[in-house]
Amino acid sequence: MKDFPVDIEATLFCGQCFGWQKEGGVFQSVVNGVHVQFEEESFLSALAKDGRLEHYFDMDGLYAEANEHLSLLDPKLSSAVRRFGGLHILNQDPFEVLICFILSQNNNIARIRQMYAKLAQTYGKAVNDTLHAFPLASDMKNATEEDFRKLGMGFRAPYLVDAIQKQAILQQVPSLDFEKALELLMTIRGVGPKVGHCILLYGFHRMEAFPMDTWMQKVMITWYPGKDSTYFAPYAGIAQQYLFHYARTEGLQ
DNA sequence: GGCCAGGCCCCAG
DNA sequence: CTGGGGCATGGC
């Protein structure tokens, strides 16, 4: 099994994160308060300059093993791995993931990106003239439901307030088993099963997580009738991301 | 210019 | 516990 190079485009625009821009071949965002900018060809040297980026891009992830395992399960996954085997699950900041996926409900990715930018611009620390970090919980601790509604966050505004108030529970998650962690996260208003799984996958790298959104429901009915996420164990999270991206970019057929 | 979006809350049965 | 209406907003 050949080792897949990182598919930067798919990794950054597959709907697991919402803060990256690509203009004229340049990828740009703020990661953990640090401005990050690189072109495709200089990706590896960008990683070398900042060791924390290696963790962010999950360069130590078990993709060779995971891809081999998933490829052998069935033809659809084999095809998905060939196409998207370089898609990595990022190690994102859990609070940022919490907020982003509360925003994601009954929403589309383009607008989630807009709302992300709005929060960063309004509450995040500036890293240069034009770019702001995504806000920390402490940056938004005084924001009210009305503030968020004025910013265009809609019916999710009160959920954001509750999430900011309860953000400390994120620190308990790493020590909990999956079901307990999910249960705890769902005590935050606006966090249900799907958003909870997203937080555990994208914020805590829990590979048992298998977010079931409308796309994945179609995927399971069409391609995996009668099966559930345990079929993909122990790489359910990775399989979910490949299949989600597959369905969204190329349809269900 | 409607339709719909990486769901969840809330309230009936 | 299961099902269905309602929800803010703007991209398409």
3D architecture notes:
The protein has 253 residues and is mainly α. The chain has 2 domains: 8-90 and 210-250, TATA-Binding Protein; 94-203, Endonuclease III, domain 1 (Orthogonal Bundle). Helices cover 48% and strands 6% of the residues. The chain has helices at 8-13, 43-49, 51-56, 63-71, 75-84, 94-103, 109-123, 145-150, 157-165, 178-185, 193-203, 214-223, 236-250; strands at residues 21-23, 26-31, 34-39. It has a 3-stranded antiparallel sheet with strand order 1-2-3, with no helix packed on it. Helix 5 crosses helix 13 (236-250), helix 6 runs antiparallel to helix 9 and helix 6 (94-103) packs antiparallel against helix 11 (193-203). The structure holds a DNA duplex (13 and 12 nucleotides).
Mean pLDDT: 96
| Unreliably modeled segments | none
The amount of beta strand, in percent, is 5-15%
CATH topology annotation of the largest domain: TATA-Binding Protein
Number of domains: 2
Any idea what the radius of gyration is?
Answer: 18 Å
- The structural class is mainly alpha
Give the fraction of residues assigned to helices.
40-55%
What is the CATH top level name of the largest domain? Alpha Beta
- Count the E strands: 3
End-to-end distance, in Å?
27 Å
Shape: globular
- CATH architecture annotation name of the largest domain: 2-Layer Sandwich
Major sheet characteristics: 3 strands, antiparallel
Question: Helix segment count?
Answer: 13
Q: Provide the succession of SSEs.
A: HEEEHHHHHHHHHHHH
Order of neighbouring strands in the sheet with most strands: 1-2-3
